[in-house]
Write a structure and sequence with these properties.
The chain is globular. The longest helix is centred in the N-terminal third of the chain and has 12 residues, at about 1-15. About 10% of the residues lie in helices and about 45% in strands. The strands form 4 sheets. The chain has a 23-stranded antiparallel beta sheet that branches. A two-stranded antiparallel ribbon has the order 1-2. The protein contains 7 helices and 29 strands. This is Alginate export domain-containing protein. Keywords: Signal. It comes from Acetobacter persici.
């Protein structure tokens, strides 16, 4: 009974922070006070309105010593629960598990460490001095998805019920202060009825190496510097461009290198990756897809802090270049004949500026991207076409932490340029996002993706209890260009073009309810409606709904 009571008390003291790589305003100064004064952040104030499966809370708040969190101290770039550092959110458990640092447990008294049984796996001393140590991590995730009309009725299935089970375990070896190695293994199972999309390698996965890195790091020129090589998740990009593909069983990983340097108020990340090939679905058969490359540089500058409405405010200015080289279905563009596509390969050069942070109680985010490059048709008789596309994304959320439910209210607006499928000789004007923008960002069902799209809608979030959170988002969608196609997830180009009139596409109300009902456990429900315009229904698009339930255990 005493053990049950301790478990219940630990659950009551836990916190659920729903955030993604560029969301939240848990600024560095607030993190320290939060760990000392309250077991959960004052409010969840996301920069993006809808978010992924929750990052689970720390196993025991007493294990946090002197305001430290379980990741390297990035100083001012601890903002956004560590997301400002470029390594994704870390709130006890990280989006990428190798971003965690459990060495503070070495200084934790034994009577506190034993409050969570899994603490014995988070810091395992391998020599007398403790300079060599290992940490183990694990995740079991069971997900159920029901869609009555997948991909607006164009998936070839109706009333699809998909059951996904992910088993993911990792080991992190630290060899002194400057060298560490991490290996993570994955086994994915998928079943259900009227299923689709299970042959892509993103849902079913035989036992394989999901991530495997070697990192060399240290202080040089006044900065924390490091080089990370191997297979890894990459999160240093706007969520409107890229995500870890956590909607599926198998996350998107990359094979290559990144080098980073973090000073007091400036950081830079240089990277060059090839996409991991998840096919064939055999034991330890994953290789490298040399037809999909991601490379570039990302910089972030912490602007001078200021006061607004009596609150400390901190803004960041990010300048970045992301280069894409890719082929296959993702690179195809609509041809002049309705229902046909022009195959080829593409290079996309994304140059962008992002201004984000908190202005008093307002969480703000504004991103502008110009996308150049070229499209090379597969047929050598056809001419290479230049690319001239762009995207503008913005959101603002006002949060009242002193009100019941700690509500946040705001609006999100997005513009992803479109082109013209009737012009086959000029520049390609359709913005491209071949490497999985965050599905929770706009459309969980993947019926639409971030191409030829305008989206505007209100957002709201509520912290009804430290372990219970509610998210709402109601985006209205239009085609950015009525002379371009409608694009869906998984490189889908819908056939309706010449018969489709008007730019309005529809509205997709979305809600998420997530409950951290026990230490290490989270139970999340996502519901989305797909309500289409009369023009969309006339050409054969189907309205529908999606329900997703996720039960997740992490240590």
């Amino acid at each position: 009974m005493k053990r049950i009571l301790r478990c219940f008390q630990s659950w009551k003291s836990g916190s659920l922070v729903l955030s993604v790589a560029l969301s939240g305003t848990a600024w560095a100064a607030e993190q320290k006070s939060a760990t000392q004064k309250t077991p959960f952040p004052a409010a969840v104030t996301p920069l993006t309105p809808v978010v992924a499966v929750p990052v689970l809370p720390l196993p025991d708040k007493k294990a946090i010593l002197k305001g430290a969190v379980y990741h390297p101290d990035w100083k001012i770039f601890n903002a956004g629960n560590g997301a400002a550092s470029g390594f994704g959110v870390v709130n006890g458990y990280g989006q990428a598990r190798w971003t965690e640092d459990w060495s503070p447990l070495a200084r934790t008294p034994q009577n506190i460490r034993k409050n969570d049984w899994f603490n014995r796996l988070k810091y395992v001393r391998l020599n007398d001095s403790g300079s060599i140590w290992m940490s183990f991590s694990g995740e079991e995730r069971l997900r159920y998805i029901f869609e009555n009309q997948p991909l607006l009725g164009q998936a070839g299935k109706t009333n699809a019920s998909r059951v996904l089970l992910r088993n993911q375990y990792g080991a992190d070896l630290h060899l002194g202060e400057h060298v560490r190695a991490y290996a993570e293994f994955l086994y994915g199972v998928a079943g259900g009825s009227n299923t689709y999309g299970y042959q892509t390698g993103a849902q079913r996965e035989s036992l394989d190496l999901q991530q495997g890195i070697l990192e060399v790091k240290g202080r040089l020129l006044g900065a924390q510097m490091g080089v990370i090589g191997g297979r890894q998740i990459f999160l240093d990009a706007p969520v409107s461009l890229q995500s870890p593909r956590d909607l599926t069983n198998v996350q998107q990983t990359w094979d290559g290198f990144r080098g980073y340097a973090v000073w007091n108020r400036f950081r830079i990340d240089l990277f060059d990756f090839m996409q991991t090939n998840k096919l064939p679905q055999k034991v330890f058969a994953d290789g490298t897809n040399y037809n999909a490359r991601l490379y570039g540089a990302y910089t972030s500058t912490a602007l001078p802090a200021f006061q607004f409405m009596g609150q400390k405010s901190q803004m960041f200015a990010d300048l970045f270049f992301l280069g894409y080289l890719y082929g296959g279905a993702a690179a195809s563009i609509p041809a002049s004949a309705q229902g046909s596509v022009q195959k080829g390969s593409s290079r996309r050069d994304n140059v962008g500026l992002r201004l984000w942070g908190n202005v008093g109680p307002f969480s703000t985010n504004l991103t502008g991207i110009f996308q150049g490059g070229e499209f090379r048709p597969a047929k050598t008789s056809q001419s290479t076409r230049s690319v001239r596309a762009y995207a503008v994304n913005g959101s603002i959320t006002y949060t009242r932490a002193d009100w019941a439910g700690k509500p946040g209210f705001g609006v999100q607006a997005d513009l992803f340029s479109g082109g013209s499928d009737r012009s086959q000789g000029g520049a390609v004007g359709t913005f491209a996002t071949p490497f999985v923008p965050l599905p929770y960002y706009n459309d969980l069902s993947l019926s639409l993706t971030s191409q030829n799209l305008i989206g505007v809608g209100p957002i709201a979030n509520f912290t009804m209890h430290p372990t219970l959170h509610l998210k709402l988002h109601v985006p209205f969608f239009w085609r950015a260009s009525t002379q371009d196609a409608i694009y869906g997830g998984n490189s889908k180009i819908y056939n309706w073009r010449n018969n489709l009139h008007g730019g309005f596409t529809g509205v997709m109300p979305y809600t998420q309810l997530s409950w951290n009902f026990a230490p290490h456990w989270a139970w999340t429900h996502d519901i989305e409606g797909i309500l289409l315009s009369r023009g969309m229904r006339t050409v054969g698009a189907k309205q529908g709904a999606l329900y997703m339930q996720t039960l997740e255990f992490k240590f």
